[in-house]
Amino acid sequence: MTDVYENLANAIILLAVKDYRQALKLLSKNPHSRSAMTTVKGMERFFRSDWYETLTSVDGEMLIRKLREEAFI
Fold it and tell me: CB 3.0 to 4.6 Å from 36: which of 2, 20, 27, 53, for a disulfide?
C-alpha cells in the first residue's frame, strides 16, 4: 500500500516540476507574462511548503535553483 502513496507523491512532484519548467520557459521568452509569473511564484511556494516536505525528502530550494539554472542557460 505504501507504494501507491509514494507513486502518488512522486506524480504530484513531477507535475509541479513540469508546470514550473513550462512557466520558467515562458517567462524567459516573455518576462512580462503575468500568468507565467503567477505560476512560478505558486510553484516556488509549493516547493517551500510543509506539504512538499511531506511528499518528498528532496530539498525544495535546491530543486528551484536547479530548475532555474536549467531554464536560463
Answer: 27
pLDDT band at residue 73 under the 50/70/90 scheme: low
Give the Cα separation of 71 and 73 in Å (integer). 6
Distances (CA, A) of 12 to 2, 31, 65, 67: 15, 27, 19, 16
Residue 28 CA, distance from chain mean position: 16
Per residue in 8-34, pLDDT (tens digit) is 999 999 999 999 999 999 999 999 999
**Whole-Å CA distances, 30 to 15, 20, 41:** 22, 15, 16
- DSSP letter (8 states) at residue 31: T
Q: What is the CA radius of gyration of the chain?
A: 13
Q: How many helices (H) does the chain have, and how many strands (E)? A: 4, 0
